[in-house]
Amino acid sequence: MDSRHERAAEGDLHLGAAPRGGRVWRRVLAVVVTVVAAAPFAPTAGEARPTRPTQEDPSSSAGFSDTAIVDIDVEVSTGESSDVIGTLENIKSNVSAQMADLQAADTAVSTAQDELDAADEVVASTESHIDDLVADSDDVVTGAYVNPPSDSILDSLSADTANDAAVKHAILDMQAEDDAEVLAELDDARDDLEVERNAQAEVAAAAQQVRAEKEAQRADLEAATSQQTDFVLAVSDRLGAQLAEAEALASIDPAKAEEIAQQQAALAAKLKEISDAEAYKQAVAMIQAEAARLQAEEAAAAQAAAAAAAAEAAKAKATAGPASGNLATVTCPAGLGTLTVDSGVSAALQQMVNDAGAAGVNLCGGGWRSPDAQIELRKKNCGTSEYLIYEAPSSACSPPTARPGTSLHEQGLAIDFTCNGGAVIPSHSSPCFIWLDGNAGAYGFSNLPSEPWHWSTTGG
User: Fold this and answer.
1) How far, in Å, CA of 373 to CA of 86, rounded?
2) 323: helix, strand or coil
């Protein structure tokens, strides 16, 4: 097993720092643009050449094997053209070989997946067969309980003739054999399932290994392509510099200028050959596709995380806060009207009536009550004397009614709920009370036990 396979077996499936960061495919595209647009490979006289950042050594990137790149022992700027061309050829061949290896790995993954699908199907079929046998075996056990063997003996003793008894025994023997066969088949099927599951696990492990090797090979291809990119860019720089020198010498020493131009023609041809190579085009397409896939995965993961966070936030109950001294309006479901309450509890109340409506319980009623309205209510429920209006305890009223200035309604912190468009909640057995009793606490509201309809932030 080579180092790439060892790394795959250890689970190191990273594609390398450069590929993951998106640098490789951008550099590869840069080569495509540079090589195709390089003619005449040199700036015009006096034109400043753009400065390109120095690329990192591909061999320093993690995630690929040592065999993914070739050794370079030529100095691009000063080496012989033949040596540079030879290195370009070696690098080109390496990219082609890595591409072929990746294609082979991709085929191996498809084959492994087919084998895994087949193993899964075998296990599923056996599990289904076992389910059927279990049902049959349950019938056997039930039959043995309802009709125990002793019944057959009694039937034999009570048979009219010996022949009748023999027939009955033969039937019982046949049934017993059938029952035994069902139970034996069930045991065999369970043994088969154990073997099949072990085989399935082995196939799954092998498929995972093949997928890991494919990812490692993908990293190798990206490393090889990255090395080719760096070297081609360096050669392109050399080519441009040499042709610029030839252009500068053209008026001084035309012969030398022509010599230099001819020497660089082979390099120019080799660069174009590389840019036109099918393996290189496939590698560029693969790297672009991989970058797009990674970006799509990251976007999908971010979207899923945002959706999960939103769902979690939606689950969280808004809870009634302290009184703010300001009033706000809450809309009742089913067009039943509105409730006016303190703004400190309005969000919680709105969510609560919305959630209740979604559960089929439509709540509305009365919330905030002005001091004048509280006085009028005391007159109605308690009496019209000064004492009854302002001093008598709430228990002296029917129904009990708080003294003016002490009611939570006057603060917008209490609600008298109506139920499903009717009157106020009549009893503790009302569906509206039952829903509130099970849920209102999560929103910060409690019930006054003596009044099923009255709910507030304190229960008073």
Assistant:
1) 99
2) coil
